[in-house]
Amino acid sequence: MAVNHGRVVLVAGATGLVGREILAALLADKTVAAVHCVGRRAPGVTNAKLTAHVLELNALPALAKVDECFIALGTTIKLAGSSAAFQAVDLHAVVAVASAALSSGAKKLGVVSAMGANAMSGVLYNRVKGEMEQSLTRMGFSSLVIARPSLIDGDRTALGQSDRAGEGLGLLLARSLRPLLPANYRAILARDVAHALIRAVQTAAPGVTTLLSGQMQGG
Questions:
Q1: What element of type H or E holds 133?
Q2: Domain 7-213, CATH number (from 3.40.50.1000, 3.40.50.720, 1.20.272.10, 3.60.20.10)
């Protein structure tokens, strides 16, 4: 029996819009031998290559050896219930997963951030995303790819997630105004973000690469 020596990948956030697309693409990739998902919920997918680890992300145990990692964790202050709870997901959990992946041998990391990420921002959401990016940059991955999508187009209710306040209206406006908007400000399909991030991680030069939303459109 032939032994599959393909890549072993860790994914966090596989129950979200982008994470679901990342997982699907990796499972369909013949160069991927195994995918380990970590999170508080199983992804609801059955595949011979997939192992789901249901656990708290801020208290990760030692993980199996992996080659690369994708993190698509994210919430909002309203859904989280407080600024501290929001930071627990969008900053601390992301850093915890990245640290565990690094300890397990990952050389490459792809992470979903946000268009306005800026550690010096006066807006909490943007500041936390920026702080998360800074933390990952300092961790020492051979290649780090940061995706900064604009408004993500997808059906959250189909995933059993609550609607985000104002997002539905924002998507309607973004779709109708799409031809008039600069590429970086157009709504972007979750699938496009996922595929662009996976491609970028595979081809990234050493160091940090930032993908702006316009670069990921139509991926």
A1: helix 124-137
A2: 3.40.50.720
**Residue written as tokens 């369909």?**
28
Amino acid identity of 148?
R
> How does pLDDT run across 163-195, given as a tens digit for each residue?
555 555 555 555 565 666 677 778 889 999 999
How much is the pTM? 0.89
Measured distance CA(213)–CA(163) in Å, rounded: 22
Diameter over CA atoms, the chain: 58
Cα separation of 189 and 210, whole Å? 18
Domains of the chain, by residue range, sit at: 7-213
SS3 breakdown of the chain: % helix, strand, coil, rounded to 5? 40, 20, 40
Cα–Cα distance measured from residue 3 to residue 115, given in angstroms and rounded to the nearest whole number: 41
Residue 89 CB coordination number (10 Å): 20
